[in-house]
Design a protein that fits this description.
- This protein has 347 residues and is an alpha/beta fold.
- The chain has two domains: 136 residues, NAD(P)-binding Rossmann-like Domain (Rossmann fold, 3-Layer(aba) Sandwich), CATH 3.40.50.720; 182 residues, 3-Layer(aba) Sandwich (Rossmann fold), CATH 3.40.50.720.
- Helix content is 29%, strand content 14%.
- The strands form two sheets. The chain has a seven-stranded parallel sheet with strand order 8-7-6-9-10-11-12, with helices on both faces. Strands 2-1-3-4-5 form a five-stranded parallel sheet.
- Helix 3 links the parallel strand 3 and strand 4.
- Helix 5 crosses helix 8.
- The mean pLDDT is 92.
Length: 347
């Protein structure tokens, strides 16, 4: 039996099943640790995880019931940016650090967000359909109804890593950029040629509204009917953050009744969507299957990050990417800073 037990739900998360744990275990070499799978249901997993030294969270929600049943857990480690699958408040109450993977997929998601903006604006899906259906001559007249891209306004709701990377991509297209984010200093925005704005200003002035808010309690269902009513009738709404941040019934109504022109979405409120979701049948909607972060480096990068976080915690040190850092000062883990860091509690 290994010295350290890392419990994880069986099955895959984001990737194909059966990939093994070689990438996660590489940073753990020399620590006498093992990853032990448990059933992907609350009670079955708790039976396996109760005496674990750490939890590798994937494939199921880590609830308060699970967290309260842990006897000696030093950390709950996620291989994703979002932490909505873990009850962070319950973990904080127990003094357990929760870590995420905040910067591994930034460039991919920004690429995808910019692709959705361009595809929605130039009606790429509709143009493709016209050609395939023998409606060649309808393509040009459809685009004669839209303005040129240069000079239009891109508004960000939340201005974290992905939004900043998207701003770098949008600048060469000649877009004017504004952003609303009550959780960051406004002085960050001008470095990206982005002007700070209120939420109402972003909604009313933007030709493109790009939502990047995480699925936190503060952001859950933050945009609804009253917000889409404030947007331009020609506006395109883009969401590569989390589906739970939008009241989808309001978005559907906005698209059906022409309050906005188009939606380009990588995330939905319910994933995968049911066949009865009206968004699936709308010609003014561009969809992708929550794939914005995917690339050839996706799996190895995030799994190695998970392994590094586990190795730090199991060797008695602070993790790099703790989302509830208040617990660290009360833990028996020690702060370390061998090199300059630009993120995490050690910076």
């Amino acid at each position: 039996m290994a010295k350290f037990k890392i419990a994880t739900p069986a099955g895959a998360s984001f990737t194909t099943q059966g990939g093994g744990y070689d990438d996660e275990m590489a940073p753990l070499a020399g620590l006498d640790a093992e990853i032990v799978e448990g059933p992907a249901n609350e009670q079955g997993f708790l039976d396996v995880a109760r005496d674990a030294d750490a939890i590798y969270a994937k494939g199921m929600r880590i609830t308060k019931t699970v967290i309260d049943g842990l006897r000696q857990c030093r950390a709950i480690v996620l291989g994703s940016v979002g932490v909505d699958s873990v009850d962070v408040a319950a973990a904080t109450a127990r003094g357990i650090p929760v870590t995420n993977c905040p910067d591994t997929f930034i460039e991919e998601v920004a690429d995808h967000a910019m692709a959705l903006l361009l595809a929605g604006f130039r009606r790429v899906i509709e143009q493709d359909r016209m050609v395939r259906e023998g409606r060649w001559r309808e393509g040009r007249p459809a685009l004669l109804q839209i303005p040129r891209l240069m000079g239009q306004t891109l508004g960000f709701i939340a201005f974290g890593h992905v939004a900043r990377a998207m701003a770098r991509r949008a600048k060469p297209f000649g877009l004017r950029m504004i952003a609303y984010d009550p959780f960051i200093e406004e002085l960050v925005m001008p470095d990206y040629d982005v002007v700070p704005a209120t939420l109402a200003e972003v909604l009313r002035q933007s030709d493109f509204v790009s939502l990047h808010a995480p699925a936190t309690p503060e952001a859950e269902r933050m945009l609804g009917e009253e917000h889409f009513r404030q947007m331009k009738k020609t506006a395109i709404f883009i969401n590569t953050g989390r589906g739970a941040t939008v009241r989808e019934e309001g978005l559907i109504k906005a698209l059906q009744e022409g309050w906005i022109a188009h939606a380009a979405l990588d995330v939905l409120e319910t994933e995968p969507p049911g066949n009865n979701n009206p968004l699936l049948a709308m010609p003014n909607v561009t969809l992708s299957a929550h794939v914005a972060s995917a690339s050839a480096r996706f799996d190895p990068a995030r799994k190695q990050h998970v392994g590094r976080e586990l190795a730090l915690v199991l060797s008695g040190r602070w993790p790099m990417s703790c989302v509830n850092p208040s617990v660290l000062m009360r833990s028996d883990l020690r702060r370390w800073q061998p090199v300059s860091m630009t993120r995490g509690p050690n910076s």
